[in-house]
Amino acid sequence: MRWIWIDRFVEFTTRQRAVALKNVSLAEEHLHDLYPAFPIMPHSLIVEGMAQTAGILVGEARNFAEKVILAKIGRATFHRLVRPGDTITYDAKIEQLNETGASIAGRVTVGDDLVAEIEMMFSHIDQNMGGQKFPEHNFVFTEQFTDLLKAYRLDKAIVL
Amino acid sequence: MPMSRDEIFKKVQEVLVDALGVDEEEVTPTAVVRDDLGAESIDFLDIMFRLEKAFGIKIPRGEMMPENLQNDPNLVKDGMVTPTGIAELKQRMPHSDFSTFEKDPKLDNMSKLFTVDAIVNYVQQKLAAA
């Protein structure tokens, strides 16, 4: 299985905002792990979906030159469960961005329903770990992430 | 009308409560952000972001807390901040109180310069200069 928790981007405004969708299917194993006979999308994976949406937004802001790490989840408030058949919309906005990292305000919805509000912070680790050295290559943004953005841009080019 | 020191303190208190999950009562003027409020390295980035947002200011990197001091042998020697280092720190951190630090200027004690009061002083200077 691939560690990818969003299906596609539907909006992407550099250094500002990204909106991604995730279709939740009963066929996904993790839905069955929390409560037998009551499949739900685990909250932790909803947070991960937001982290991937926002992480790609933050990475793209500096052309994927930085290794962007989820550093802190300031707040995650959940209002509704996500069930099989739902389509999750992750809406991530950059509140602040500088050379050391970024802060994000995120909203998660299903249709018109608010599912969660999530605030998170990302760190550019090469800039923040007191001179500690990390591998040269960007191990954060593998192809499976950058391909999502490529697919969005390609779709948009075709529509236009 | 400029914000009073008390108003700045209240806002700084809110920022630290939100960033560190501490109780309001713990955020006293003399509280040391790392030692008393339990801030870890990544929390400092969070605190900066929240201060920028709360007060509408920009905090350039290293302005509130100088970085990489230990790499300069003129400033730090054998784990102690040298007199030159202290002079340099005083210049770069006019918002901090050095009276206790000067008595035992170990590099490890540098975090004690970063108190709630130091943040309030910093913001106050920043707002006055704006």
Outline:
The complex is a heterodimer of chains A (160) and B (130). Chain A has 160 residues and is of the alpha+beta class. Chain A has helices at 43-61, 125-128, 143-159, and strands spanning 8-13, 17-23, 68-78, 87-97, 101-110, 113-124.
What does this molecule look like?
The complex is a heterodimer of chains A (160) and B (130). With 160 residues, chain A is of the alpha+beta class. Chain A has a single domain (8-142), classed as Hotdog Thioesterase (Thiol Ester Dehydrase, Chain A, Roll), CATH 3.10.129. Chain A has helices at residues 43-61, 125-128, 143-159; strands at 8-13, 17-23, 68-78, 87-97, 101-110, 113-124. Chain A has a 6-stranded antiparallel sheet with strand order 1-2-4-5-6-3. In chain A, strand 1 (8-13) and strand 2 form a beta hairpin. Chain A is globular and about 45 Å long. With 130 residues, chain B is mainly alpha-helical. Chain B contains 4 helices and 2 strands, in the order H-H-E-E-H-H. Chain B has a two-stranded antiparallel sheet. In chain B, helix 1 (5-20) packs across helix 4. The relative contact order of chain B is 0.18. The model of chain B has no long low-confidence stretch (mean pLDDT 92). The interface between A and B is medium-sized, with 16 and 13 residues.
Observed structural traits:
heterodimer, A: 160 residues, Thiol Ester Dehydrase, Chain A, six-stranded antiparallel β-sheet, 36% strand, globular, B: 130 residues, Non-ribosomal Peptide Synthetase Peptidyl Carrier Protein, Chain A, 2 domains, two-stranded antiparallel ribbon, 4 helices
Show the helix and strand layout.
The complex is a heterodimer of chains A (160) and B (130).
Chain A: E1 8-13, E2 17-23, H1 43-61, E3 68-78, E4 87-97, E5 101-110, E6 113-124, H2 125-128, H3 143-159
Chain B: H1 5-20, H2 41-55, E1 76-77, E2 80-81, H3 83-92, H4 116-129
Antiparallel strand pairs in B: 1-2
